[in-house]
Amino acid sequence: MSTQPATAAATYQDLLARIAPQGESRPINDPATGQEVGRAPVHTTADLDAAVSAARAAQPAWGALSHAERSDYLNRAADAVEANAEPLAELLSREQGKPLNGPNARFEVGACSAWLRATAAFELDPDVVVDDGDSHAAIHYRPLGVVGAIGPWNWPMMISIWQIAPSLRMGNTIVVKPSEYTPLSVLALGAVLNDALPADLLHVVSGGRDVGEALSSHPGIDKVMFTGSTATGKAIIRSSADTVKRLTLELGGNDAGIVLDDVDPQAIAEDLFWGAFINTGQTCAALKRLYVPDALYDQVCDALVEMAAKMPMGNGLDEANVLGPLQNQAQYDIVAQLVEAAKSSGARVLTGGNPDADAPGYFYPTTLVADIDNDNPLVAEEQFGPALPIIRYTDLEDAIAMANSLDVGLGASVWSSDPARARKVAARIEAGTVWINKHGAVDPRIPFGGAKQSGYGLEFGVAGLKGLGTPQVIAE
Ligand code: NAD
């Protein structure tokens, strides 16, 4: 198998030229300005069929390579991302809205190459389950075939890599269906990766819901990796049933953070802030409800207000900004309505909550809301934007009960200066990951997945690789 040498784009326009639509296309606008960023192809289910056929034809030769050979290609793909890092980050910033600076666009592109390299490096040996002298049995992980990946608009490049890297490493080929809000970022990333990969392993089909639906019921797709809302995850479970597809579902969350009464509010304020406001709150595993004890309530609120004042929001291309706009009007409306409802219920807005309706772009100010009830919609629903409700508690048992009161459980966090105490509380929280003194710190080595209606299946690490293989037992 041979590949083209990696080419480096000089500007984001070079990347756009590489993915220029051949047929029907539609404009994609910058959420900070409303101006056109570029045009995305409108792919159809016929394009999907062609991509799946090509990916199926390419899979046997790719699956026949050794792990070491496939890992070598993943490292070359990481080189290609690094060679194009700045134009990729600029395109991402223009299309998604996230600033170049801070834990945003450059960080996301950097995570893509880091995830490729980490995924290349994991050792995956068969699991020997019996070896007693009489019998020997081991579980091997064979390629599944063709993976279909469906993604959201919040971290479009990084989440695509979370799907692409382990799929390829395990000998599968893959067809990616990006969100209709952020197709350019994923098409450009795909073009860059394809410079380093053998032909036809990776296809990006830039379609809408109809293409997502067709992918999840397609007889040529063996597994769907889906990251997006819980409602769409349920639709995918239904449409994939007839072909008994394997599924990894990374769905919506409404992560709780519980502050214990032994913390220093100043010392945790910055990590709390970024736990909640990374990517301007548009993050699945962001801190979305914060429970704070009476004794520290005012101090934690004050420390967060101070932190918010230090974090500039604006056009992502301006290096000064670390927070950006909401990505789209629908998400802006959700955040605005939830904050308005919180205000009318009598909750106290500490900062923000007053968007400038006449300014261009989907900017919603960093908003902190205090003295709010646990059943307020701003607490109980996933806001997915820059508005954090801070709920007061007196008894830790009540805080744990409130944290567990929803039907989702992606991440959560406990904040304490006593690690043993924090671990005891963490063990009682119903979430796929509970971080201690941090929130949302994903790591390619550490498995990640949801509890309850936040989904099932694990990503990352060796557990993530196993999820992209068919287990086969050889017993002798
Ligand atoms: P969404 O569910 O609206 O869309 C996600 C993708 O699904 C898009 O590509 C869309 O075209 C496609 N789609 C829509 N209907 C479909 C159908 N019936 N069949 C197949 N595909 C279909 O989600 P979104 O608004 O893009 O993303 C935000 C949501 O994603 C939030 O709830 C967030 O918490 C969640 N999310 C979860 C994780 C995680 O790891 N758990 C990560 C990021 C985002």
Report on the architecture of this protein.
The chain has 16 helices and 20 strands. It is of the alpha/beta class and 476 residues long. It folds into two domains: 12-251 and 454-475, Aldehyde Dehydrogenase, Chain A, domain 1, CATH 3.40.605; 255-443, Aldehyde Dehydrogenase, Chain A, domain 2, CATH 3.40.309. Strand 6, helix 7 (183-196) and strand 7 (202-204) form a beta-alpha-beta unit. Helix 4 (85-96) packs antiparallel against helix 7 and helix 5 packs parallel to helix 6 (156-169). 53% of the residues are buried. It binds nicotinamide-adenine-dinucleotide.
Key structural traits:
single chain, 476 residues, alpha/beta, Aldehyde Dehydrogenase, Chain A, domain 1, Aldehyde Dehydrogenase, Chain A, domain 2, seven-stranded mixed beta sheet, six-stranded mixed beta sheet, 20 strands, binds nicotinamide-adenine-dinucleotide
Chemical compounds bound to the protein = nicotinamide-adenine-dinucleotide
Give the radius of gyration: 23 Å
Shape: globular
Q: Please count the helical segments.
A: 16
Q: Give me the secondary-structure category.
A: alpha/beta
How many domain modules? 2
Overall pLDDT metric: 97
Largest sheet: 7 strands, mixed
Which CATH architecture of the largest domain would you pick? 3-Layer(aba) Sandwich
User: CATH class of the largest domain, anyone?
Assistant: Alpha Beta
CATH superfamily of the largest domain: Aldehyde Dehydrogenase, Chain A, domain 1
Q: Termini, distance in Å?
A: 35 Å
Strand content: 15-25%
Number of strands: 20
Largest sheet, spatial ordering of strands: 12-13-14-11-10-16-17
- Unreliable residue stretches: none
CATH fold topology of the largest domain: Aldehyde Dehydrogenase, Chain A, domain 1
Determine the fraction of residues in helical runs and give it as a percent range: 25-40%
